[in-house]
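Section 3.1: Structural characterization of target chains.
Under the original work plan, the team committed to producing a structural model for every single-chain target entering the pipeline before any wet-lab resources were allocated. The record below documents one such target. The sequence was received from the expression subgroup and is listed exactly as submitted; it comprises 264 residues.
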Amino acid sequence: MFVLITGAAGGLGRAFAVECAKRGYDLYLTDINDAGLALLKRGITGAYPVRVITRGCDLTKGDEVEALFDDVRQYGITFDMLLNVAGGDLEGGFYDRGADNLVKIVQVNVETALRVTRQVLDHRTPNGPLYIVFVSSLASFYPMPLKATYAASKTFLREFACALRQELRGQGVKILTLCPGGLMTTPEAASGIAAQGFWGDMTTNPLERMTRRTINRVLKDRSLYVPGFVNRLFRFAGALVPKPVVARLLHARWQSAQKEWLKI
């Protein structure tokens, strides 16, 4: 099995790469961080007998994505699994951010996944299943003031993945959407979780267990994975409350968390 992982040099991408390597899957890893990719490749090839190919790429740029798949063709690679991990987040009020920064979130979270997924469909292993994971977020279920663009972009991914799953199910394509809570992927993420106090701890997902269960579920053709019992409770509770009320409650929570974050 050959797996393409986007955003592979980040915390979640690295965890998925290690989990796939443990299973004996060959890897094609891409990220904008070339140094991070090189370090990850050395670590995986030193520990597991798998093939690892890396390529630095800004996936928001169409010409770089085309060059990446030219590289794929030259290697003669066909893919059995795609993990759409690449994404970005930006805290703060919409009016406090520049338009370019806000649009960049949509480009990284949405445009990247669309470009890569469409290309992989042309480079899948013939006569076999293709497994695709879209990394959305628990935030995709709610209107989230102070994270409005991020949450909306993740909602797009979740709805898109659900529709595409139905559209392609007769062609052997199996799609799962992962909607995690907090993830300890960067020092900034860790600070943000700490600023939320008790609820930050309760909604945070351990990377190794989550990636293992995600791969298990997509192989079983599951459609959605919200890891963590508390996160699943929040998802169902949020569906019962009117969205304007949810937005008001979340606004108060994030305002408080941001004040705590500034103290850290």
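The chain has one domain: 2-263.
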